[in-house]
Amino acid sequence: MSDEVDVPEDHPRYQSLVTRHRIEDGVEKGITSTQGLIAEGRGEAFDYLLGEETIPSADRAARAAAAHFLLAEHPVISVNGNVAALVPEEVVALAGATGADIEVNLFGRTAERVQAIADHLREHGATEVKGLTADARIPGLSHERAKVDADGIYDADVVLVPLEDGDRAEALGEMGKTEIVIDLNPLSRSARTAAVPIVDNILRALPNVTRHARDLAGSSREELEAIVTEFDRDAALEAAERRLREGALADGE
Ligand code: PTJ
Q1: Per mean pLDDT, which range of 47-51, 55-59, 118-122, 213-217 is the poorest?
Q2: Which residue of 13, 51, 85, 228 is 20 to 30 Å from 23, comparing CA positions?
Q3: 86-98: per-residue pLDDT in tens?
Q4: What is d(CA 80, CA 82) in angstroms, rounded to the nearest whole number?
C-alpha cells in the first residue's frame, strides 16, 4: 500500500492516513459520497477506542459469518461507496471464497455512481456486479436503498451489509434474511439488528471472514450449523461496548 500515499509506513497513524486517502480518492473518482467522509470520521473514532485491533468477540463473529456464508443458498455482499473505496479486492476475494454475489446498493444512489462502483470493482477482479438493474424493491423502505436486483439481494438468504445506517438492515430482517453487519459502532441500529454483528474495521473484518471461510471450506453442514448456533450476538455486542467504554484491560477480551 506504500505507493498509495506519500506517508512512511512507520508513521504512527499510517493505517489511518492510508484509509483517509482511499476515501478521499473515492470521492474524487465519484465512487464515495461526501457523506462517506463523515462516516469515515465516525468509524475512525470508534476504531481508536477499540485499540485498532480485532477483538476476540469480533473474530468469533467473523467465524460465524463465514459459516453462514458457506451454509447459504444465495449469499450476497452489499457494497456502498465507502466499501468500494476501502476494500474492493477484499470484497472480490470474499465473493470468490464463498460463492457470494456482489451487489451495489447506495443510500445516495445515482446511475453514474452505481456504474462507477461497478467499474471499480471489475478493475479489482469482479466478474459480475449486480445492482444496476434494480428491478425489485425492499418492502417498507422509502429511500433509494430499497432498490435491489430481483436475482440479487431480493432473492438472497444471507446478506452482508457493511457500514450503513439501520433501516435497511431492519427491513431486510423483516424479509426473513440473515444479516451480517460490519460496523465499528456496537450501538448502531444495524449492528443491533444483525444476526451476526462484526464490530471491527472493515479493513480487518473482510479479510478475516475470508480467512475463516477458507479454513471452514471442508467442514460438514453439522459443523457449520454448530458454529452458527453457538455464536451469541448479544454477548458479542456487549463485549464490544465494554471494550469501547473501559478499554482492553477491563473487559478481559
Ligand atoms: O455510499 P452510500 O451513498 O450508500 O452512503 C454510505 C454511507 C456510509 C455514507 C452511509 O451508509 C452512512 O451515512 O452511514 P452512517 O450512518 O454514517 O453509518 C456508517 C457506520 O459505519 C457508522 O456506524 C460508522 O461508525 C461505521 N464505519 C465507518 N467506517 C468504518 C465503519 N465500520 C467499519 N469499518 C469502517 N472502516
Answers
A1: 47-51
A2: 51
A3: 999 999 999 999 9
A4: 6
Q: What is the DSSP letter of 130?
A: B
CA atoms of 190 and 46, how far apart (whole Å):
15
How far apart are the C-alpha atoms of 2 and 204, rounded to whole Å? 18
- pLDDT at position 13, please? 79
| Host H or E run for residue 120 | helix 111-123
C-alpha cell at 227: 458454529
Q: How far is the C-alpha of 217 from the C-alpha of 237, rounded, in Å? A: 27
Reply yes or no on whether the pLDDT at 40 is more than 70.
Answer: yes
Other C-beta atoms lying within 10 Å of the C-beta of residue 3: 5
Q: 220 CA distance to ligand 1 centroid (A)?
A: 35
| Residue owning the nearest CA to atom 8 of ligand 1 | 36
C-beta atoms surrounding 47 within 10 Å: 19
Using CA atoms, how far apart are residues 191 and 194, in angstroms rounded to an integer? Answer: 5
Ligand 1 neighbours, Cβ below 6 Å, are 33, 35-36, 39-40, 42-43, 46, 80-82, 86, 106-108, 163-165, 182-185, 188, 201-203
pTM greater than 0.85 (yes/no): yes
Q: Are 195 and 209 in contact (CB under 8 A)?
A: no
Cα angle 136-202-194, degrees, rounded to a multiple of 5? 55
> What cell numbers appear for 22 in the block?
482511499
CA nearest to 186, candidates 139, 129, 235: 235
Query: Which amino acid belongs to residue 210?
Result: T
Protein residue whose Cα sits closest to atom 29 of ligand 1: 43
